[in-house]
Amino acid sequence: MMQRDECLKVFKRHRKDEIVVAVYMAAQEMTHIMPSDLNYTFTGAMGQGSSHALGLALGRPDKRVVLFDGDGSLLMNLGSLVTIANAAPKNYIHCLCENGTYETNGAVPIPRAGQIRFVDMAKAAGYPKTYEFSNLWDWDYELDNILKEDGPIFVDLKMEPGEAYPEDFRRLYSIEYRDKFREALKKS
Fold this sequence. Notes:
Blueprint: E1 2-3, H1 4-14, E2 19-23, H2 24-33, E3 39-42, H3 49-59, E4 65-70, H4 71-75, H5 79-87, E5 92-98, E6 101-102, E7 108-109, H6 118-125, E8 129-133, H7 136-148, E9 153-160, H8 169-173, H9 175-187
Parallel strand pairs: 1-9, 2-3, 2-4, 4-5, 5-9, 8-9
Antiparallel strand pairs: 6-7
Helix pairs in contact: 1-2, 1-7, 3-5, 5-6
């Protein structure tokens, strides 16, 4: 089992100029681990990360879009898997931070935690490529290849919380950072 912050640190080492979308706890950690004007972070729209990332991928087909979604969040919008597969954006990578809980809401277990195979759901929805990782070494080893492949790609990252990072909701909702994101999209 991986720790989420360590998983994000591995991603940071491989990141080039991708648009990174993150929800809830991954968004909070990302602002500390890999600050970038190309980070799109938000909370308060549980389940909408996959749809926001899809919109960005379709709007910017020239940029790779990587989503760090939560398993509880994805369960709120399972229909997005079919929509994403149907749209088939080649620049879309859907990373699921699977920890079996609605972590932001007090780590309440998701229904059927540990019994759901999210990669099977993604395959059934029509994702042409899926991966599943439970250790950092494999994630680190495969990540460069994943970032070069055509999508949509679904990556299930089996994890648990890592180091506690300060939560900064003002940063996540900041108009200043939204404007910086818009400007970064224009420049790249």
